[in-house]
Every structure is written in C-alpha cells, then in structure tokens.
Write a structure and sequence with these properties.
This protein is of the alpha/beta class. About 40% of the residues lie in helices and about 20% in strands. It has a domain of about 220 residues: NAD(P)-binding Rossmann-like Domain (Rossmann fold), CATH 3.40.50. The protein is built from 12 helices and 14 strands. The structure holds nicotinamide-adenine-dinucleotide and uridine-diphosphate-N-acetylglucosamine.
Length: about 350
C-alpha cells in the first residue's frame, strides 16, 4: 500500500517524503510544480540512496490535484492507503491580492481530492492546517480547543477546509482525518539538499535571514521592537521541518488505529523572539546578519506559541531539535544552494 502526498515536492512535503521512505513506506507524489521543482525528486533520491529501494518505493506524477482524471488514474494505478494533503498556495500577502486564486486552488483541490478518495473508498486523510486558524488567540499557549478565526484569504481557506472535513466526518464516521496545525516551520534537511527556497524576496523570517547571511540580501528589517515581549520583537513557535515531517509519520500511524477526526498542534511549545533567532543565526554564521528595526508589519500578532502536549499524549510525537540546529541547517542549505 502507498501513501499519496499532494504537494509532495514542496518544503514540508519533500521532508515528509524522506522520513516516510526511510520508515519503509511506499510514497506517491502528485505536484503541479507551482512552487517547487522536479529536481526535488532527485534530491530525495540522493538522500535515501543506499537505505531505500527508491525506484520501487517512489512514484511521481506531475499535475494538478484539481485534475480529477489524473487523480483517478493515480488511485487506479497505485494502491493508496492514505493521503497527506499538502498541496496549496500559502503566502498570506499574496492571498490578499489574488484571493480567487487562493480559494480556487486550495478549496477546489481539496473537494476534488475528497471526491476521488470517496470514489475509491480511501478514507484516511492528514490535512496541512496552520496556527493561523487561531487568529488572535486569547492567551498563550494555544490549545487545540481554542476558538478559530481567520483574517486573510489564505487563513480562511485553511479554516473552510477544516470545516469541510468536519462536516464530511459528521456525515460519515468511517473517515479517519487528522488535522495538523503547524506553527512556524524552519530549518532544512541535514544533507543540505532540500529546504525552503522561496521565489523572489522572502516574506518569512528564516529565508530572509538566510539570504542576508549569504550576502544575497543586504539587511533584515525587523518588524517592530515595541511589542509587549521580553525584547520588544515578535515571538513565535519555530519548529524544525524534520520534526514536523516526523509528526506526519505519527499521524499516519494514528489513522491506522481508526482514530476518527483528530486535531493536533505541531509546535515545540517554546516561543522565541525575532532577536533570539537573529542571535542564534549569527552564532552559526559568524555574525553576518545585519538588521534594523522598522514599523510593525500590518496584521502581525505579538506572541504565538503552541501547547503541543496533545500530540505527545495521543501520538507520541514531540519536537526534538533545538534552535541552534534549526539555524545551522537553514544556513547549510542556503550556502549549498547559493546561486
Ligand atoms: P510549498 O509551497 O513548499 O509546498 C506546496 C506544494 O504544493 C508545492 O510543491 C506546489 O507546487 C504544490 N501545489 C500547490 N497547488 C497545487 C495543486 N493544485 N496541485 C498540485 N500541487 C500543488 O509549501 P509548504 O511550506 O511545504 O506547505 C505545505 C502545506 O502546509 C500547505 O498547505 C501550507 O499552507 C501548509 N502550511 C505551511 C506552513 C509554512 O510555514 N510552511 C505553515 C502552516 C501550514
Ligand atoms: C507566517 C504566516 C502565517 C503562517 C505562519 C506559519 C504571514 C503574515 N503569516 O506567520 O499565516 O501560519 O507563517 O509558518 O506570512 N519578521 C521580521 N522581518 C521579516 C519577516 C518576519 O521581523 O522580514 C518577523 C514577523 O514580524 C514575526 C516573525 O518574524 O514576528 C515571524 O514572521 P514570519 O516568518 O513571516 O511568520 P508569521 O508571521 O508568524
């Protein structure tokens, strides 16, 4: 049996593919390359070389999840046991500029996927959700039963999809669905072969810092130093992408227990400020990250971190890697892939 990863050549999907292959699973990927490259599959192959029979354990389909014919063909050909649905557009700022693209891509792809899964009686799904569904949480840490809300089209697509999945489960309790709410994934694979490589100027903190460290960008702008935090800069729950990838293995195992619908935060439970990240990064790169303070970024919140106890209690999952490793692997990836 195989596990289908939609968007499996992307940042989180590719790391999850590696962990699944190394755990002996068979992996099928469908990706339309809208935010990734076909060569990522070669990198995955290189990482698992000698440990895994890649040609037997891995299949790749280049195409769109909204293409129902393609998806049906995949389900006909491959014996799919469960699906991890990563595919989607994810840039908050962009989603405010082209909301219809976000609704079309993220929601339509999920509806087509669910229809095809139903048709082939494959009712096991892990969905990539986000801490963004908590909006401005009333207190910290954030627990899974906190109220949800969304303030931008990207966040709304995550919330709508969560609701669609809840309705689906209410209508048919034979589905097993795990909603994973990721906090802030950063870091890269130890090999330096795969990592986060956004097009253009990065919006998110870690890719921006990496590019300042490698000399591609001049200086980091820190958005606000007047937040009510220990040093005035925003605090987030950064989690290493390999830890996050392992959370998906645990979620797949959870599906195999006929778990019904479950929701888990995937974070470390620890909040770091922007200055903590800059200082930790400077330790690994020899102080190359210059920064200046600028105005707050509209829409940002001051503090956001998870309570990750539920994922540990119910799936045995816990993040293991520390901030230094997150910075070290991000820097290593950036330097190895410097163009
Ligand atoms: P990513 O952009 O690197 O990966 C997404 C992949 O999906 C890309 O390879 C892209 O080409 C593909 N894709 C997009 N639309 C598609 C479609 N219609 N058909 C086929 N392939 C399609 O993003 P990521 O960081 O790996 O995120 C994966 C998922 O996790 C996304 O759903 C994202 O919203 C969610 N998420 C990400 C973060 C984060 O900070 N990275 C945080 C919370 C949630
Ligand atoms: C972003 C997404 C959010 C998603 C989350 C998880 C935005 C606006 N939000 O959140 O939907 O769920 O990732 O990955 O993109 N910062 C700077 N300078 C920069 C970039 C960021 O100071 O150049 C600061 C921000 O103000 C924030 C922190 O760094 O305090 C993290 O920012 P970022 O990496 O963009 O993530 P989030 O805003 O937490």
């Amino acid at each position: 049996m195989s596990i289908l990863l939609t968007g499996g050549l992307g940042y989180i999907g590719s790391h999850t593919a590696v962990e699944l292959l190394e755990a002996g699973e068979r992996v099928v990927v469908v990706d339309n390359l809208s935010n990734s490259k076909k060569e990522v599959a070669d990198k995955i192959k290189e990482i698992v070389k000698g440990k895994v029979d890649f040609d037997k354990q891995f299949s790749l389909y280049i195409g769109d999840v909204r293409d129902e014919k393609l998806l049906s063909k995949i389900f006909e050909k491959e014996k799919i046991e469960s699906v991890v649905h990563f595919a989607g557009l994810k840039a908050v700022g962009e989603s405010c500029k082209i909301p219809l693209e976000y609704y079309k891509n993220n929601i339509d792809s999920t509806l087509v996927l669910l229809d095809v899964m139903k048709k082939f009686d494959v009712k096991n799904l892990v969905f990539s959700s986000s801490a963004t569904v908590y909006g401005r949480a009333k207190s910290m840490p954030i627990y899974e039963d906190f109220p949800t809300s969304a303030t931008n089209p990207y966040g709304k697509t995550k919330l709508f999809i969560e609701n669609i999945l809840m309705d689906l489960y209410e209508s048919d309790k034979t589905w097993n669905i795990v909603l994973l709410r990721y906090f802030n994934p950063i870091g890269a694979h130890d090999s330096g072969l795969i990592g986060e490589d956004p097009n253009g100027i990065p919006n998110n903190l870690m890719p921006y810092i990496s590019r300042v460290a490698s000399g591609k960008l001049e200086c980091l702008s820190i958005f606000g130093n007047d937040y009510p935090t220990k040093d005035g800069t925003g605090v987030r729950d950064y989690i290493h992408v390999v830890d996050l990838a392992n959370g998906h293995l645990c979620a797949i195992k959870k599906l195999r227990t006929n778990c019904g619908l479950k929701i888990y935060n995937l974070g470390t439970g620890v909040g770091y400020s922007v200055l903590d990240i800059v200082n930790a990064f400077n330790e690994v790169c020899g102080g190359k990250v210059k920064y200046k303070f600028v105005e707050r970024r509209p829409g940002d919140i001051d503090v956001c971190y998870a309570c990750a106890d539920k994922a540990f209690k119910e799936m045995g999952w816990k993040a293991k890697r520390d901030l230094k490793n997150m910075c070290q692997t991000s820097y290593n990836f950036e330097m190895k892939n410097k163009k």
